[in-house]
Amino acid sequence: MKVNKKIWSFLSFDLATIINATNNFLNDNKLGEGGFWPVYKGTLLDGQEIAVKGFQGARSGQGLTEFKNEVILFAKLQHLNLGCCIEGEEKMLLYEYMSNKTLDSFLFDSFQSKLLDWPMRFNILCAIARGLQYRHQDSRLRIIHRDLKASNVLLDDNLNPKISDFGLTKICGDQVEGNTNRIFGTYGYMAPEYAIDGLFSIKSDVFSFGVLLLEMRLWKDGTPEQLIDACLVDSCKVSEVVTCIQIGLLCVQHHPNDRPNMISVVVMWSSNNVLSQPKVANFLTNNISLIEGEQSRGRQESSINGVTISVLNAR
Predict the structure, then answer these.
(1) How far, in Å, CA of 151 to CA of 102, rounded?
(2) Which fold is adopted by the domain 104-302?
(3) How far apart are CA 239 and CA 225, in angstroms?
(4) CATH homologous superfamily of domain 5-96?
(5) Is the pTM of this model over 0.90?
(6) Where in the sequence numbering do the catalytic residues fall?
(7) The predicted structure's pLDDT at residue 77
């Protein structure tokens, strides 16, 4: 695996430092594990707490592309992650430790979910939207994440979100779309054109954001008030929740051209204009057999997601 030496030296940590920080990767310091990447908590000599994502697929070659992709992205954008370690077959990424872990640990836990009232959730959604807008439009490199989901949103001490896991990211320059024969990501969050045909664009991320937005509240049949999770009733503004649901439905429309971009999403939240009506998101039922068929032929490689996504019907 060859990468410009300047990139490695800019981000490099030695293995001894990481071993010391994690107490030799003590199991009690393990924060979690997914795919090829177990994550450990550590503390550097200056007292800074870190999260170390350790790569285990070196011998088989699995995940090397994702590792390289993430390091190059951080180096080019001078991202605020801490760096990486490459010694022999050991390959690791270092991040700032986020004390509140991931957004999914709150959303899908019956106790933790009660700790996120509506203003907190609304602020998290707005911050994620601004982060995507920056990556799509304002960054000097156009970035398509391709695996946005609740478990890839980290929360700091103040519950400020940070989008993480850029191993599947595509740097597109002036392009706004592309295609691939290898499908990566998480079913339920994938845009249909990407899951079925390998076509990705900034609108693929918009779709994933729409799913995430709808996950931030309870969805069921009924009047708008009945869409609100019981734990949010006392803290929410019904009009804001309904607006978010409508924006979410606009984001998960079947055709990319029907979805807003992230600039429009941000504007919708701050505008009093009447929103357009979303079209029926019928792909969730009509195309599921196509997706499963592609998967059975080994075309897709997707990360694990235990969340069940209900069929969403535009109202």
Answers:
(1) 5
(2) Transferase(Phosphotransferase); domain 1 (1.10.510)
(3) 9
(4) Phosphorylase Kinase; domain 1 (3.30.200.20)
(5) no
(6) 147
(7) 67
